[in-house]
């Protein structure tokens, strides 16, 4: 008996449909009244008023939602309607928990955490909410009685793709963990009308189309039109003389935009706690200029509205270059200001003044996107709340902390001073003053060190005068953290080297983690059931006991069951690849997956080169005892990142040639799955055998896909980069296929004037692969297509693709060989899962809470 089967397979059945009709004809009696407020304002929380959690009450609630909220009879309902009705019913349960919690904790809440992030990559929420509320079984039965499978409803939910990749998904995992650990927290971000673009591959070329996740409404959110903050832009600063002879500076913005709150409740594991993700939508204070409209100037009448609302229109898909556009700065300031105004209002309401802010709140900046918070909080404290400058600075530095997510110099945000002066004139003054005081202090401690001053200044002079947002965030924070041990070390040695000398101890490490609810329990119920059987239900709450699996790693019976789960998951992925990529694969083959944003430093190109090498070798000797391999690629390229798009095209070109070649039939398949998103990851992650984590060492800050895949029993082929280093420590390096240059070696190579031709000269395989690709073997329609790409590998080879090629192929060889020894492979897979308990985002968040936020955690 599998003790964990929340989303088992139950087909729609005719009896259920008949039942739904009966219920429609005779609507069910309300089971228990919905929570109501008594005259005293207290919630009547006795059990008769609570929503019942039986399957029949859930069924009735869903039917009521379908009927009265959506206005549809079951006979007319489509999958999307069932999803909406189900989500609304589940939301009622979420709200109930929230109200109960409010009732229980009123006045007793401790320090609040505010997580400011321009991105929250949430994906679907139905399964997460149902799973965390513990209602999965009841819901399945309820829907079955209505003639609907849980997957019919679930798959009709659009992904909330309000993020680009790792950084946004981390924010979503962190929110879920904060709720699971019952840490009082708010997520603050932007409610984009359009999230990350939909990717279509047309003849192998990526094309972007807008996605429209809100087009059928969002059942999880609550619009809060009454929660609205004014956000200013432009205008000028005036000085006002005060009676005591001092002067007060006042910002008179030339333009106003309203930020309107939309709240999505975030339920923690076992429904323990509910926090809120508050996303801001931009609205014009005046929806239209009636005078202009009446004059017949219809465009002009709406112009302000269009300008204001463009702020929350669309997520920037930039992952290739820091978005330089003014709109991006407007987005950053917009949501940061709304968040700070919102939390200050709460502070004043609860504590009576802003003075105790730093004791009562912790504001975490997710990368530099909200770094303007440092200046905005100063402005609000000094200009709006009349706090003295020095005290305001102490409050700001006491409340704010900052997470860095990349060291790539080209990714570090900076804004041109003239743009800042035009858009945020008061903030620019504040930044100048912060900088002056900061540089005075540096000068006092290190006289005559102009290099040091230039390096730590908030204003850079390299490409015109620009405000360096990383430096601003650094000086305004009490802690600055990296996201893996290696990344944090490199932060100390490179981008923040001088800051680390000036402020020793300010930089700390907080290795990333992933939500085990989403990335194990929900996406892999088969494996979760097996783990519960083997280790007991405690594993669902205390993932560190996964280490006990080590005792079972050599047990043939356990291995068999572990492998059976993997096999079923691979069959599901095979179906998806057939339907969505048009590629038929054998689930018995080794599934080798690389799923992440397409970027040169992530080196999908290295994987493609190996694919070509393998293909050529198989073709040359088809009768050899090959390990059948399926290469799975998925990921989006930034729309303007031509090289990344070309790499997608190459993967597709190689796929076309390989998949059509009868000489490698049954040996090699290549699939590029279009439109990678969270939901696709939830199918691929449980099905992977081999996880590609092959970034150029020193360039991937952490990675989190590496964790998801290993937790689900994939073996890692990877470089010693990001959190993969720590995974090797927890799992055992001998259970992984590690290869390639270390971060230090990469630095040395680059300094030594390395060229890819040096690798080509010593590797026949590399030479053949480059000749084939460069010569047009995979692009017969355009022989020159990959000329430049190959030339750059032969020349600078910045990402060390040529340099690492042979080592990578050798590691691939080791993986293929091990796969042929299934007991050994399975044992290693079990050991990978066993070593991953530490990588729960609950552990990450508990570390933030204790060491950065000063918030107690009950564990
Ligand atoms: C931005 C840019 C812009 C300029 C050119 C290259 C480049 C490369 C990456 C980025 C994204 C930077 C922020 C980010 O998403 N970092 C990711 O954060 C994850 C969560 O901490 C972490 O796991 C990934 O390793 C890291 O790339």
Please explain how this structure is put together.
There is one protein chain. The chain is α/β, with parallel strands linked by helices. It folds into three domains: 1-108 and 144-155, no CATH class; 111-124 and 159-415 and 467-510, Glycogen Phosphorylase B (Rossmann fold, 3-Layer(aba) Sandwich); 550-839, Glycogen Phosphorylase B (Rossmann fold), CATH 3.40.50.2000. The chain has 34 helices and 24 strands. Strands 7-10-11-4-1-12-13-17-18 form a nine-stranded mixed beta sheet. Strands 21-20-19-22-23-24 form a six-stranded parallel beta sheet, with helices on both faces. Helix 26 links the parallel strand 22 and strand 23 (715-718). It starts with 13 loop residues before the first helix and ends in a 6-residue tail after the last helix. Residues 8-40 have low confidence and may be disordered. The structure holds ligand 26V.
């Amino acid at each position: 008996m599998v003790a964990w089967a929340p989303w088992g397979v139950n087909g729609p059945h005719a009896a259920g449909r008949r039942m739904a009709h009966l219920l429609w004809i005779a609507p069910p009696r309300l089971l228990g009244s919905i929570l109501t407020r008594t005259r005293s304002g207290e919630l009547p929380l006795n059990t008769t008023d609570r929503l019942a959690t039986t399957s029949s009450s859930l069924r009735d609630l869903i039917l009521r939602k379908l009927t009265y909220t959506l206005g549809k009879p079951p006979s007319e309902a489509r999958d999307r309607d069932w999803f909406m009705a189900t989500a609304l019913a589940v939301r009622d349960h979420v709200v109930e928990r929230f109200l109960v919690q409010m009732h229980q904790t009123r006045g007793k809440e401790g320090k609040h955490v505010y997580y400011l992030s321009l991105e929250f990559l949430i994906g679907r929420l139905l399964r997460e909410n149902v799973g965390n509320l513990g209602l999965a079984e009841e819901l399945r039965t309820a829907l079955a009685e209505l003639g609907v499978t849980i997957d019919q409803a679930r798959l009709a939910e659009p992904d909330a793709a309000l993020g680009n990749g790792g950084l946004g998904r981390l924010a979503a995992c962190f929110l879920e963990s904060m709720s699971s650990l019952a840490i009082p927290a708010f997520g603050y971000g932007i409610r984009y009308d359009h999230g990350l673009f939909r990717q279509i591959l047309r003849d192998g070329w990526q094309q972007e189309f807008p996605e429209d996740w809100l087009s059928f409404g969002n059942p999880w959110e609550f619009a809060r039109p009454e929660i609205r903050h004014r956000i200013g832009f432009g205008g000028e600063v005036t000085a006002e003389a005060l009676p005591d002879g001092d002067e007060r500076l006042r910002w008179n913005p030339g333009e106003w935009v309203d930020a309107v709150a939309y709240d999505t409740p975030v339920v923690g594991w076992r429904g323990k706690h509910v926090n809120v993700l508050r996303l801001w939508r931009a609205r014009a204070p005046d929806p239209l200029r009636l005078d202009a409209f009446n004059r017949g100037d219809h465009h002009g009448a709406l112009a302000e509205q269009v300008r204001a609302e463009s702020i929350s229109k669309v997520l920037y898909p930039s992952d290739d270059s820091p978005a330089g556009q003014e709109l991006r700065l407007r987005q950053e300031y917009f949501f940061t200001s709304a968040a700070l105004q919102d939390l200050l209002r709460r502070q004043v309401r609860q504590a009576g003044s802003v003075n105790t802010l730093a004791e009562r709140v912790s504001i975490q900046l997710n990368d530099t996107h909200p770094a303007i918070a440092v200046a905005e909080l100063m402005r609000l404290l000094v200009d709006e709340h009349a706090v003295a400058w020095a005290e305001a600075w102490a409050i700001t530095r006491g409340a704010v902390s900052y997470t860095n997510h990349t060291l790539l110099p080209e990714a570090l945000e900076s804004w041109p001073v003239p743009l800042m002066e035009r858009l945020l004139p008061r903030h620019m003054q504040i930044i100048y003053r912060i900088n002056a005081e900061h540089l005075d202090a540096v000068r006092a401690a290190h006289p005559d060190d102009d290099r040091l001053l230039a390096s730590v200044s908030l204003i850079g002079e390299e490409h015109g005068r620009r405000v360096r947002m990383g430096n601003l965030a650094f000086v305004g924070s009490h802690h600055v953290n990296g996201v893996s041990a290696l990344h944090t070390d490199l932060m100390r040695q490179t981008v923040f080297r001088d800051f680390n000398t000036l402020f020793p101890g300010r930089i700390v490490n907080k290795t990333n983690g992933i939500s085990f609810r989403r990335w194990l329990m929900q996406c892999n119920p088969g494996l979760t059931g097996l783990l519960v059987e083997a280790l007991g239900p405690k594993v669902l709450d205390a993932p560190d006991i996964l280490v006990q699996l080590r005792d079972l790693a050599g047990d043939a019976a356990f291995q068999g069951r572990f492998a059976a789960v993997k096999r079923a998951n691979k069959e599901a992925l095979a179906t998806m690849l057939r339907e969505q990529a048009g590629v038929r694969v054998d689930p018995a083959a080794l599934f080798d997956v690389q799923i992440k944003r397409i970027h040169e430093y992530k080196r999908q190109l290295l994987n493609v080169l190996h694919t070509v090498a393998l293909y050529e070798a198989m073709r040359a000797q088809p009768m050899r005892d090959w390990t059948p391999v399926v290469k799975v690629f998925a990921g989006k390229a930034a729309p303007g990142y031509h090289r990344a798009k070309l790499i997608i095209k190459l993967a597709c070109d190689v796929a076309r040639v390989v998949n059509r070649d009868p000489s490698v039939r049954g040996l090699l398949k290549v699939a590029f799955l279009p439109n990678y998103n969270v939901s696709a990851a939830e199918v691929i992650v449980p099905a992977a055998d081999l996880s590609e984590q092959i970034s150029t060492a020193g360039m991937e800050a952490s990675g989190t896909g590496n964790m998801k895949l290993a937790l689900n029993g994939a073996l890692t082929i990877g470089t010693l980069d990001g959190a993969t280093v720590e995974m090797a420590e927890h799992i055992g390096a001998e259970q992984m296929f590690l290869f390639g240059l270390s971060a230090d070696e990469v630095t040395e190579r680059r300094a030594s004037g390395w060229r890819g031709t040096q690798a080509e000269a010593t590797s026949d395989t590399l030479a053949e692969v480059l000749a084939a690709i460069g010569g047009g073997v995979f692009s017969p329609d355009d022989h020159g297509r990959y000329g430049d790409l190959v030339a750059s590998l032969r020349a600078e080879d910045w990402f060390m693709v040529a340099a690492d090629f042979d080592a990578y192929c050798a590691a691939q060889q080791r993986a293929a060989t091990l796969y042929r020894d299934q007991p050994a492979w399975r044992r290693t897979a079990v050991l990978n899962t066993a070593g991953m308990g530490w990588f729960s985002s609950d552990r990450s968040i508990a570390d933030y809470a204790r060491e950065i936020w000063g918030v107690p955690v009950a564990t």
